[in-house]
Amino acid sequence: MKKILITGSNGFIGKHLVARIANEYDIYCLTSDLRNHNQVRLEVQQILPDLTVHLAARTEVERSFYEQTTFCDINYTGTVNLIESLVATCKSPKILFASTMEVYGWQPVSDQIEQGHVPAELPVFDPDHTVPNPNAPYAVAKLACEKYIEYAHRCFGLDYINIRQTNSYGRDDNNFFVTEQIISQMLKNPDACKLGYKNPYRNFIFIDDLIDAWVTLIDKFDQVANNNFTVGPNNPIKIQDYAHLIAKKLNWQGTIEWDTKPARPGEIYLLNSSEQKIHLHTGWSPKISLDQGLDRTIEIWKNKMTREIDVIRQQEGW
């Protein structure tokens, strides 16, 4: 059975991925701190994985503007330590890396949208034709990781796939990210919801579809190696419209207070990916519509809050 080493196995994607492939592969979850080169190398040497799935990272883009060195240390230096350990110990090192759509960063269309000139058809950022131009410390570190992976491919034969992931949703334990943040705020407060910028456009993929993409690339790694992929779907929506869509689904009648978050220098006003390339190479396409995914995420948070209320009642002897 093929041995797969997974970093970030306790994270949002990691937990779902391990559950999906645990019976198909021999799974090992990295326990070392990625910033400790000696520990990482020793653990990799003991496992000698056939494939490494690298998910571990700080991913809160907003916080990276204020914790630059921490994000660089964990996301970039940690990845370098992992890669160096793989090429030093594995005969045929292979890595499947969780990159991000944020690497595309600033594009001319972003300035147009910021100035109120929204194109009739929003462009799609393509991994083979759109030049990355990261505009946040998080994104800079992720692109640097991609470049280090490409260097290791040329010099040491490291085979790789970089997945430039778009915004995923469907969490049940973290409301920092935009979808869960909107839903949880509206469920908790019937009067007000405090959000940041309203004019950027993003596209969204439900966790089940994203895990399907990861599993597909794990299964087909050797056939499609040494590529960058985006995972779509091509469904860009303005954050203001996104919040209103969620409010409508919840029948929420409160007021959304915009621009209540700290300013993000160089805010990106469009990130939009497509599944065209990965579909061409593997046949994968997302199956869950935005409406379906939001309905399922809303149900997750309704159930979560019901459980929390029950726990409080039990503790207070109701």
Account of the 3D structure:
Helix content is 46%, strand content 15%. It has 318 residues and is an alpha/beta fold. The strands form 4 sheets. It has a 6-stranded parallel β-sheet with strand order 2-1-3-4-5-10, with helices on both faces. Strand 1, helix 1 (12-21) and strand 2 form a beta-alpha-beta unit. The longest helix has 26 residues, at 290-315. The model has no long low-confidence stretch (mean pLDDT 95).
Q: What's the helix and strand layout?
A:
Layout: E1 3-7, H1 12-21, E2 26-29, H2 37-47, E3 51-54, H3 61-64, H4 68-89, E4 94-100, H5 108-114, H6 137-156, E5 159-165, E6 167-169, H7 178-188, E7 192-194, E8 201-202, E9 204-206, H8 207-219, H9 221-224, E10 227-230, E11 237-238, H10 239-250, E12 255-257, H11 276-282, H12 290-315
Parallel strand pairs: 1-2, 1-3, 3-4, 4-5, 5-10, 6-9, 7-12
Antiparallel strand pairs: 8-11
Helix pairs in contact: 1-8, 2-4, 4-6, 7-10, 7-12
